[in-house]
Design brief:
356 residues; Ubiquitin-like (UB roll); Elongation Factor Tu (Ef-tu), domain 3; six-stranded antiparallel β-sheet; six-stranded parallel β-sheet; globular
């Protein structure tokens, strides 16, 4: 009888508790930790929901989970070893599972729905454009956050980080740096100039990437269009006269792929403490006029800040998955604490296509 009861009797309920906001909810059989959280109105950080962006990364405190898709496709070896999981790919196995998520900035406003028109575009490089949208009303956001953009006849919204520093009274014009994705429906149309005066639906703000309070050294690394959220963060810090040493590394393929250098110079000149800017080129021709750093940008952390107390320093990174993973490895190798490394991993259709 006991055996039959175990087969056909009611299954034991499984619950998840989420720190720091104290939510507790039940996870029905067949649902992921994230799916159940969203159905119960739990503000669990998320974006892609398919295991590529890392937005739902959380630390497993108690309990066991199984992964629908290997966490290693998105999380670094260091993060997995430290107990981090992806809620969108996690199936809970025990009666109680406790996880901890990084909470949003304390002053982060709630997302709202806006309508907007494309009012300006600017070529930054051969494959990155700056676009400016005019919203129907001002938006408030925290430097480092992103918006979901949706336009007619496209089912899936696109996520882009704000490239501007927020204004106290809100911003009615917002800008983004958008990299062309080969065969991408949105970016192909954008780069062909087919979106003039087009109306967008904007859902924003979202995201937990932001500057954490403190006066310890900070090292920032950007790659490609990942420059946008760091420009927002650094410009806001400059305006607020944040006083902490900063090293800013920008990785690009060639000189032609560097952009926003004048704006970065203005940030450097107005920074309240020491500021080092180090562009690094990975594919610059050997016989070119470039006399700066060459190689992978994540290899130059100690060059940019040679005397840092790495146990106290914070890392901020925005860019493609490979750069983020290499950056985490380099930062932890020099002695940075994993819980002081913050990042926004930029993924697109090409990354999703690689998932099994």
């Amino acid at each position: 009888m006991g055996f039959l009861k175990s087969l056909f009797g009611p299954k034991e309920a499984k619950f998840v508790e989420v720190a720091p906001f104290g939510a507790r909810y039940e996870v029905p059989s067949g649902e992921t930790m994230l799916e159940a959280a969203l159905k119960n109105g739990v503000p669990f950080p998320h974006n892609c929901t398919v295991g590529t962006c890392g937005s739902c990364k959380c630390k497993l405190k108690t309990g066991r989970v199984s992964a629908l898709t290997d966490f290693g496709y998105t999380l670094s070896q260091q993060e997995i070893a430290a107990g981090f999981i992806l809620a969108c790919q996690a199936i809970v196995k025990d009666p109680l599972t406790q996880v901890e998520v990084e909470s949003a900035s304390s002053d982060a406003p709630k997302p709202e729905q806006f309508t907007a028109k494309l009012v300006a575009t600017e070529d930054l490089t051969h494959d990155i454009k700056k676009i400016t949208l005019e919203l129907d009303r001002p938006i408030h956001f925290v430097a480092g956050q992103y918006a979901n953009l949706k336009y007619p006849n496209v089912k899936r919204a696109r996520n882009y980080s704000f490239a501007d520093a927020p204004d106290r009274d809100g911003r009615q014009q917002i800008s983004f740096y958008i990299r062309k994705v080969p065969n991408g429906v949105f970016t192909e149309a954008l780069f062909k100039g087919e979106m003039a005066e087009m109306t967008f639906d904007v859902d924003a703000p979202h995201g937990n990437f932001h500057l954490h309070p403190g006066n310890t050294p900070m090292i920032c690394i950007a790659g490609g269009s990942g420059l946008a959220p760091l420009m927002s963060v650094l410009e806001k810090a400059r305006k607020d006269r944040v006083k902490r040493p900063c090293a800013f590394l920008f990785g690009a393929r060639t000189q032609a792929d560097l952009y926003c250098l004048d704006q970065i110079k203005q940030i450097e000149q107005g920074w309240a403490d020491s500021f080092v800017f180090l562009p690094v080129l990975s594919h610059e021709p050997a016989d070119s006029s470039w006399t700066g750093a060459r190689g992978l940008v994540t290899q130059f952390i100690t060059d940019a800040m040679p005397n840092a107390n790495w146990a106290e320093a914070e890392g901020y990174m925005c860019g493609p998955p490979g750069m983020i993973d290499a950056g985490i490895s380099s930062m932890t190798e020099v002695g940075m604490n994993l819980d002081k490394i913050f990042y926004d991993k930029f993924t697109d259709e090409s990354h999703i296509a690689k998932m099994p």
